[in-house]
Amino acid sequence: MLYLNKRNKTQKRMQNELEHEAVVFARYLGAKEISPSLQLRYYKAVETLPLKLNAKETALLKRITRFSFLLPFIDGGLALINTKHGIRKRLLVMFALMETDTMYADMFLTKDVQPFAIIGFFYKGGVAMLKGLAGACLLKCLRWS
Amino acid sequence: MELADYIIIGSGCTGAMAAETLCGNGRSVLMIDAGIEGEISTKHNDDFISKRLHDEHQSEFFLGDAFEALREPVHPNIPQQTPQRAFMNAQTDRFLSIQSNNFFPVESLAFGGLGNGWGLGSYTFSDNELRKCNLPVDEMNNAYKTVAERIGISGSVDDDASAYCHNNLFPIQPPIRLNPAAESLYYKYKKKQKQFTQKGIAIGRPSLALLTKDIDGRKAYGYNDTDFYTNEGNSAYRPYITIHKLINQGILDYKKGWLILSFKEEDNVVSIQCLSIHSQEIKHFHARKLILCSGTLGTSRIVMRSLAGFDQLPVICNAYTYMPMIYLPFVGKQHTGKFSSLAQLAMFYDPDNDHSNVAMASVYNYRSLLNFRIMKQMPLNHADGRKFLQLMIPSLFIAGIFHPATYLQGNTIQLKQSSSVTGDTLFTNYTYIDKEEAMISHTEKVYSSAFRKLSCLVLKKMRTITGGSIHYAGTLPFSDTEKPFHISRNGKLYGTSNVYVADGCGFTYLPGKGLTLSLMAYAHMTASKLLRNE
Ligand SMILES: Cc1cc2nc3c(=O)[nH]c(=O)nc-3n(C[C@H](O)[C@H](O)[C@H](O)COP(=O)(O)OP(=O)(O)OC[C@H]3O[C@@H](n4cnc5c(N)ncnc54)[C@H](O)[C@@H]3O)c2cc1C
Question: What span, in angstroms and rounded, lies between the C-alpha atoms of A74 and A133?
Fold first, then answer.
């Protein structure tokens, strides 16, 4: 009985952590509101898919969920130096879940012609690359990767 | 002992065509197949954009109930696999054991075989190509007509690519409408046509086994852009269409769940040893004649188990290059109209200008496979990547180039005993020698230069791991003289009296284009010859 209670509590704590992670990731990807169903699906996906993090990845995840302004740098840095990193995998899951959710689908579709798109295209790509380079330096210097 | 006139092994494109020819002529045919089934909906669906904007359950549809689309691909050579098509390769790792460092073929044990996922590109081989394959030119050209009539093909009859696609050998339906970006690209080509012709490049509409007009209870294509997930109205030809038809007419006996291990001949009867894929029970079926349509590698396994005296067999496979590129005029353009994710344009590079050594590229727009698959491969953070992709996807083209393939020394398959369920494992080896490698690189350069001329920014040239073209042939080459592990021009396996091969095993060359229309034509031709020679 005691053992079962303990297990339930651990599971509840894990679920809370994942739901918090879902909020941070979804906000980072541009969501203004976060639906409980998105949080739940994220939780289910992490439970279902092989997305377990190792100790180093877990430590890094803790840092970026606390200081979420670091996310674009760390994410971009990992994209350059370790594409298979557990955090990248989890971010991709959130990306796909939002893409296939009516509430966020607009953010992934090009519904109207974008003026000056070609400038925006190169600018956005360039800025993202710079963030990635900064992030890669950070990861290397602080030995976070 | 029940004795069928004919037993056909396999329900893929070749099995379906051989069966239609034999059943249509009143022969008793038993089709035996591993036959793993899945569910591809043929009902009307919302179009892709409505689904994205309004369907609360789209996540299950696009990602799968258990998020299958987010797992590592089941096979490195089919990264675009959707949950609906997962059955196509199910259980192959269990029953088709394979080991290699450099050759990873895609095989199927499904009802309908690889035809459940084929891209519908239907190209005839030119007379020169047929000769190099060791296939009879006139008979194949006649067989193309019959097959085209059965499956329904759409395309253009008078553009620069027509001669390479079908050479007007048979009547076809009008081509599908082009997506706006592809239309613009094609228009650009038309303006610079002369320059391209001088370089040996022709661009036009692909011929596809896709209806643009209703026939035989099948519906014209609806531009709903759910082609990787459904087959609405059966507008796309898939082998199950033929097999369901023959079963419903009561002229085909179909038995699924059996993996054929080997065959044996005694007193003019072929006895086939089968393993149940569910219970591991062993059973024997008997026929006067056996026709193997189990896919080149599947058939080779059965033959190697049945006939003694082999060491290794040769194999040929097209090399394949992916070229993702951005069509600059379409960056940030509206991308929510009616659309098709099927091949938009077909490009042919014919260096000798004689249709003998052609390398073809199919050009696709990107949309319905969703942005996350592209995001996965981009060296950007996800937040900026999302915004970047929103602008990029409308302009994204992917060209898939098939390079012609001939026999090269050392490219072989070998069946060795192992502890797998079937008791053996296929060992494969595939590499390119310098000359071939140089030709592939040259063709890639020609294509990227052509795309640049059309205002495309080529992002990458990615050669798939060998086997990635999913075009295999040549393991039991055609031969006019009797030799072990060869087949005669009428499909008979030498060393046997009543065993025939009606898939790609005999082809001694693989042109750099889709081979499946030719496989189907060959299967029909073999079945017709059998009828004639009875
Ligand atoms: C994603 C994709 C896109 C493609 N696009 C194109 C294209 O656009 N154009 C083109 O020309 N080609 C294309 N192809 C290739 C095309 O699908 C194949 O060439 C074609 O389907 C091969 O048909 P087949 O009948 O020879 O063999 P298969 O389709 O492999 O069928 C083999 C059959 O045999 C059965 N079988 C095998 N072994 C056994 C056994 N031991 N016992 C019992 N049953 C057995 C299987 O269940 C199956 O039914 C594509 C393939 C894929 C996967």
Answer: 9
> HSE (CB half, 13 Å, CA atoms) of B452?
9
Domain count for chain A: 1
Distance B81 CA to ligand 1 centre (A): 15
Report DSSP state, residue B117: T
pLDDT < 70 positions in chain B? none
Bridge-partner residues for B473, per DSSP?
B316
Mean pLDDT of A47-59: 94
Number of Cβ within a 10 Å radius of residue B435: 9
Q: What pLDDT band is residue A3 in, cutting at 50, 70 and 90?
A: low
CA nearest to A124, candidates B201, B385, B145: B385
Query: At residue A4, does pLDDT exceed 70?
Result: no
Q: Whose CA is nearest to atom 27 of ligand 1?
A: B295
Residue B5 alpha carbon to ligand 1 centre in Å = 24
* A132 to B379: CB separation less than 8 angstroms, yes or no: yes
H-assigned helices in B237-368: 239-248, 296-306
In angstroms, the CA B60 to CA B80 distance is: 17
Cβ–Cβ gap A105/B53 under 8 Å: yes
- If one residue of B254, B470, B475, B524 were mutated to test the ligand 1 pocket, choosing by the most ligand atoms within 8 A of its CB, it would be B470
Ligand 1 centroid to Cα of residue B286, in Å, is 25
Q: Does B117 sit in the ligand 1 pocket, CB within 6 Å? A: yes
Over its C-alpha atoms, chain A yields an Rg (Å, rounded) of 17
B1 lies within 8 A of chain A by CB = no
ipTM: 0.95
Q: How does pLDDT run across B148-204, given as a tens digit for each residue?
A: 999 999 999 999 999 999 999 999 999 999 999 999 999 999 999 999 999 999 999
pLDDT digits (tens, 9 = 90+) for B327-338: 999 999 999 988
For residue B18, what are the contacts with CB-CB under 8 A and spacing of at least 6? B8, B291, B293, B502, B523, B524, B526, B527
Average pLDDT over residues A97-117: 92
Res B369: pLDDT: 96
Residue located via tokens 């070998």 = B414
Between the two ends of chain B, the Cα-to-Cα distance in Å is: 22
CB contact under 8 A, A109 and B331: no
CA-nearest residue for atom 33, ligand 1, is B10
pTM for the whole structure: 0.96
Sign of the torsion angle spanned by Cα atoms A21, A22, A26, A32: negative
pLDDT, tens only, B513-522 = 999 999 999 9
The reply to whether ligand 1 has any atom less than 6 angstroms from the CB of B426 is no
For the Cβ of B470 lying below 6 angstroms from any atom of ligand 1, the answer is yes
Phi-psi region of B309 (alpha: psi -120 to 50; beta: other; left: phi over 0): left
Q: Is the dihedral of CA B92, B93, B94, B98 positive or negative?
A: positive
Structural domain including A124 reads 2-106+115-141
Distance of CA B299 to the CA centre of its chain: 16
CA–centroid distance, residue B240 to ligand 1 (Å): 12
Residue B518, CA distances (Å) to B22, B23, B55, B163 in order: 18, 21, 40, 16
**Which residues of chain A lie closer than 8 angstroms to B389, CB-CB?**
108
- For residues A44-51, average pLDDT: 94
Query: What is residue B475's predicted lDDT score, i.e. its pLDDT?
Result: 98
Interchain CB contact of B372 with A (< 8 Å):
yes
Enumerate the residues of chain A whose CB falls inside 8 A of the CB of residue B336. 109-111
Interface check B71 vs A, CB under 8 A = yes
pLDDT of residue B392: 96
